Amino acid sequence: MVKVRHKKGCGTTPVGTIWFSISGQTYLALKEVKKALHECDDVRRIGDEVEALDENSIPALEAFLTRYQNVLHPNHYHFLGVLHLLCQLYGKAPGFLINNLTEAQLRHKRNLCRQLLKVVDVLEPGYSRLRGKFCAIKNKL
């Protein structure tokens, strides 16, 4: 978006309160732009939190998902990144080895894999390395 001083049809709108796209076809009110920028800051903050997570701690990763399940879209890349880590950790991490997982934990891992497969089906339909990886993890259970 580019801030425009004057655009035909703006009427008495104060200068700088309407943002137009480069083509001039779409526009946003300044408060909508500020809201979008604030949301970007929130996503950046959440990204920093993801970076700080212990990637080998299932409880920390699960806590992140619980904390942000009503904030992030289930297909948001931060959310999917944590899901991906959990898919890999359940069954391999100390204290969560495949032979020691409860039925509920196995079901949970299966559900995590299914959730990721739904996204992979859209991004890489058909046969792909990523799809094969999640199918293999899911089918081992």
State the secondary-structure class. mainly alpha
Spans of 5+ residues with little confidence (pLDDT < 50)? 1-15
- What's the overall average pLDDT, rounded? 79
Number of domains: 2
Give, in order, the helices and strands. EEEHHHHH
| Radius of gyration from CA coordinates | 22 Å
Cα end-to-end separation = 48 Å
Form type? elongated
Biggest β-sheet description: 3 strands, antiparallel
Summarize the structure in short.
This protein has helices spanning 30-52, 58-68, 77-89, 103-123, 129-139; strands spanning 2-3, 18-20, 27-29.
Would you write up a description of this structure?
The chain is mostly helical and 141 residues long. It folds into two domains: 1-37, no CATH class; 53-139, no CATH class. It contains five helices and three strands; from the N terminus they run E-E-E-H-H-H-H-H. The chain has helices at residues 30-52, 58-68, 77-89, 103-123, 129-139, and strands at residues 2-3, 18-20, 27-29. Strands 1-2-3 form a three-stranded antiparallel sheet. Helix 4 (103-123) runs antiparallel to helix 5. It is elongated. The model is unreliable at 1-15 (pLDDT under 50).
